[in-house]
Design goal:
The complex is a heterodimer of chains A (87) and B (149). Helix content of chain A is 56%, strand content 0%. Chain A is an all-alpha fold. The longest helix of chain A is centred in the C-terminal third of the chain and has 38 residues, at 48-85. The model of chain A has no long low-confidence stretch (mean pLDDT 87). Chain B has one domain (3-148). With 149 residues, chain B is mainly alpha-helical. The mean pLDDT of chain B is 90. In chain B, helix 1 (9-33) packs antiparallel against helix 2 (43-119). The radius of gyration of chain B is 41 Å and the shape is rod-shaped. Classes of the chains: A mainly alpha (87), B mainly alpha (149). At the A-B interface, helix 2 of A face helix 2, helix 3 and helix 4 of B.
Amino acid sequence: MRILMLVPILLLSGCLATAPVTVKFPEVPSELMKSCPDLKQTDQTTKLSDVLKVVTENYSQYHECRVTVDSWMEWYKTQKQIFESVK
Amino acid sequence: MFLLSFIPDSFLIWAINTILLIGLAGTFSSYFIRFIPPLYPYAGLVKTLGIILLVAGVWFRGGYDVEMEWRDRVKEVEAKVAAAEAESKKANTVLQKVYVEKIKLVKDLQVVIQERIVEKEKIIDAECKVAPEAIDILNEAAKNPGASK
């Protein structure tokens, strides 16, 4: 009788459905995982050149962030194309 | 069909073909057995067993072919996934290279700009005195409004 109880288990094992192929989520370059830092603050000064230095540094920071955002868009576009090719 | 994956393919096809051939032989031989008087009483039994084995053999053979077809499709998709993963890594390498180059350009330009400010410092500061209120406004504008306080 105990052995007979194994029969349904054996038969039901045929209903096991395991996905034979899994697609891993694509890796993101570590450079893109950094968030944009806050803009630099200007120290109290009367010299315009000191102000100008901070302002241009902030401009530079913006350009770096823009490159990062553009790279993210490029990464998404490329990876989407690759993902859609697997069908 | 899940359990079939544990049995070697060569043994499986051999067993299925054997069942199929025995069934086929049994079914056809039952028609000739009736002409052999000593075997005549067994003709019905051989025919029944032959048909059962033939049906089972055909069913197993169909199942086996479907199983093999799925395995081929899995292999095909696995190959596609492996190719896509390799392509993805390659695309990331290219992207990283372009990113590093662009960031270098930005940083190089920043160095040039800073040098020019230092160079022209006296001219810039000669006729201009920045009011503290202007610094406050500038700092206020530079603050991230969405940042937690």
